[in-house]
TrEMBL record:
It comes from Exophiala spinifera. Residues 64-180 form the Hemerythrin-like domain. InterPro entries: Hemerythrin-like. Coiled coil: none annotated. It holds the Pfam family Hemerythrin. This is Hemerythrin-like domain-containing protein. Gene3D superfamilies: nmb1532 protein domain like (1.20.120.520).
Amino acid sequence: MAATKSIYRVSIARSCCARPASLSSSIRPLYQSRFQTTVSPDIVNKLDETTARMSSANTGPVSDLIKHDHAELKEFYENVLRASDEDAKVRWQNQFTWELARHSIGEELVVYPAMENYMGEEGKRLADKDRAEHNEVKELLYKFQGLYPSDTDFEPTLKSLWNTLSQHIEEEETEDLPKLEDALRDYDPDYSAHLAKSFGRTKKFVPTRSHPAAPDKPPFETVVGLMTAPLDRLGDIFRRFPKD
Ligand SMILES: [Fe+2]
Ligand SMILES: [Fe+2]
C-alpha cells in the first residue's frame, strides 16, 4: 500500500512497432501493446494537495474548478515543450494526458448536462458544440499519447491539440461558463457549489493508484480505456463515490 501511495503507475498504451500513419490506424494498435512509466511522487503529492484543497473549497462555483484545470493544463502543456530531456517530456506528456482526460470526462458528466438542464435550448446547443470540440481534442490526444518525444510529429501533434483545446477553453471561459453560472444562480444560488463538488470527484479517477474513496480496483488502465468507456458506465462508477 505504501508503494502505491508514493508512486502511481501510469499505463500508457503505445504502439512499439507500427507507428500510426493516420488516426484511424493509430487507435487500434494503442490497445495492443503497452509500457509503463511512473509519475514522480512530487507531482502526485502536489496534485493531491491541490485536489484536496479544491475539493474542500466547497463554497466556490464550478467555474472556478474548471478554470483551475484549464490553467493547469496550460502549465503541463508548456512543461512538455520546455522539458529538457526525453524522460521529463514523457512524464509531463503523461501528466497532461491524464489531466485532460479527467477534465474532459468531468465536463461531459457534470457540466454539459447541467447546461442542457438549466440553460434551455441555448444550453443544448452549446453542449453539443462543446462535445464536438471534445471529440476533436480526443482524437488528437489518442495520437499524442502514443508518440515518443523523439518522433517528428510529437511537438506538431501537441501544438495542434493545444490550438484546438485553447480555443475551446476560451469559449468555455468567456461564454459557456458565465451563462451557466447565471442560469444556475437563478435556479438555486447554492447549486453551482454542488456541481463543483460533483466535478471535483472526477479528480479521483486516478487509475492504478488506490484512493480511499475510490473503488477497490482502478476502473481503467489506460487513458484510451477511460476516454472510450461508455458515459453511462462512467456515471455508475462516479455515483459510487461518497457524497462529501
Ligand atoms: Fe471542455
Ligand atoms: Fe474545459
